[in-house]
Amino acid sequence: DTGVSQNPRHKITKRGQNVTFRCDPISEHNRLYWYRQTLGQGPEFLTYFQNEAQLEKSRLLSDRFSAERPKGSFSTLEIQRTEQGDSAMYLCASSSPGTALNEQYFGPGTRLTVT
Amino acid sequence: DAKTTQPTSMDCAEGRAANLPCNHSTISGNEYVYWYRQIHSQGPQYIIHGLKNNETNEMASLIITEDRKSSTLILPHATLRDTAVYYCIVRAGNTGNQFYFGTGTSLTVIP
What we know:
The complex is a heterodimer of chains A (115) and B (111). By secondary structure, chain A is mostly beta strands. Chain A has no helices and 11 strands. Chain B is globular and about 45 Å long. Chain B has no helices and 10 strands. Chain B is mostly beta strands. The interface between A and B is medium-sized, with 25 and 25 residues.
């Protein structure tokens, strides 16, 4: 059981730069989720994929954010023209199609710092 | 959307039971309540879930009130490793695939 993995674990970037994060879900899981977590707050939902289809997006996902899951396996989250307010932990989670109750398994997260 | 409210923080003596309450008064009739915890710098970890009846697993027990407007997570014998932020979660969004985490309860287990 390799679990959900995320890369990189830490990213420091300058304001205005683009960044891309990768999430590899548990292999048999067809559902994948992205969350953002700022200091002292719980994770906030960003977007949800079932296989390669992006089925739900939060209002938090501005035009500068884009997520893809091209082959229904790994996913990428890109942030264009980063702002200091984008500094946060970005969490990925996956769940199994056989789990109607939607138990989500989380990765360790990517911590983004925008300077 | 259904939302949850939890106390900001709690302390518990090591070896004693930790009882973490949650209010989810707007939960719909067929929605489950989930509990996750997050240890510092790690991703959230699933603990338990329930609908109407009390539930127990190897980690914890979950007591849900008859009107389903609140629940309590019970860690029967808290250890130092149980120090974490505990989230009571209900689903939200159009497809029910959004988890609403809220701010959680920061539990500190004291030696």
